[in-house]
Design goal:
Elements: H1 11-27, E1 35-39, H2 45-48, E2 53-57, H3 67-81, E3 92-98, E4 105-107, E5 120-122, H4 124-141, E6 145-147
Parallel strand pairs: 1-2, 2-3, 3-6
Antiparallel strand pairs: 4-5
């Protein structure tokens, strides 16, 4: 996950690993879909050609999008950056991470949060707004996704940067450490529609 984003591997190195894995599985008569996940803007046609499933992590929070426009932005980003990579193929395309932090500050994308810039606010109300809109739209249009994430992860506290107001890395869960739904979180009903 996110090997390109972290710069653990180059695209060429990752493609070689994927090719080797597929070759090894094929040699063993094992037919499994091959996938890797990375940021939505890290995917290229070359990398997509190496996998059976393109899996893109798309977080409108990190793009500084407010919760009222975040679902539409996510859909548009995915369609223009990732879905086009598998159009007219038999490959699957899944949003492998999409979510919103329940607290911890605000993020303004590529710019610093200064006066006059709203940015994305980490909060329960904002999480609910984005989740309700995104989940219901995705059910309606058939977008496959994995919500990020079920539970808070306290080990990620080390990635917080309180000196600059970044305190959200460990607060993306719908539930707390005791596996209880966080107070105020509302799981969308979407008019009774479910995944089919």
């Amino acid at each position: 996950n996110e090997a390109l984003y972290r710069e653990d591997l180059t695209e060429t190195e990752l493609a070689k690993i994927l090719t080797d894995v597929k070759s090894n599985l094929t040699a063993l008569n094992i037919d499994l879909p091959l996938a890797t996940s990375d940021l939505g803007d890290a995917w290229t046609p070359t990398l997509a050609s190496e996998v059976d499933v393109v899996m893109s992590n798309i977080h409108p929070f990190f793009a500084g999008k407010t919760s009222d426009i975040a679902a539409d932005w996510t859909w548009s980003f995915w369609k223009t950056h990732n879905a086009i990579l598998t159009a007219n193929t038999n490959k699957k395309n899944i949003i492998s991470e999409v979510g919103w932090p329940s607290e911890g500050g605000k993020h303004c994308g590529e710019v610093n949060c200064t006066a006059g810039i709203t940015g994305a606010v980490a909060g329960i109300d904002e999480m609910n707004e984005f989740m309700d809109t995104f989940v219901c739209q995705s059910l309606a249009n058939g977008t496959e996704f994995f919500w990020f994430e079920a539970f808070d992860e306290p080990w990620k506290k080390g990635f917080n940067e309180p000196e600059i107001g970044k305190n959200w890395e460990d607060k993306w869960g719908l539930m707390d450490l005791a596996r209880d739904l966080k107070p105020g979180v509302k799981i969308p009903d979407c008019g009774g529609k479910t995944v089919s």
